[in-house]
GtrA family protein (Flavobacterium chungangensis), 143 residues
Amino acid sequence: MFKKKAIVTFLQAQVAAFLGGITDYGLMILLTEVFKLHFTFSILISGTVGAIINFSINRFWVFKNQCGYSSRINSQLFKFALVVLGSISLKSSGTFILQKAFQIDYRIGRLITDSFVSYGFNYPLIKYWVFKTNQKQDIIKSN
């Protein structure tokens, strides 16, 4: 049985992912269509901005991991960057496999792949690795 706090945390993380994702997608289109950048550069820029937004919302709202943040933020940023790199690799590979092996349109394949990667890879790693809190801090905060 899920605790209420775990459900709220999960839903907040989905809001963070959505806001980062919508920023990423919208900025990609803006940079490509309006500013005429090649889409590969647009994706690099927009993905970076989306990841920064996602990281910031997760750090300061979802996981409220501000204790000792000056020393921990570098570690969290490094871990988050690794998760983002893994996520991009899985999403690209999954979309490619669905398109080539099953002739699924890449847009639909991307949505399918994103769902699995977001819930099965990104969220667990962000929660339990990137923003992992130690149990003593949690006990102190709850008292």
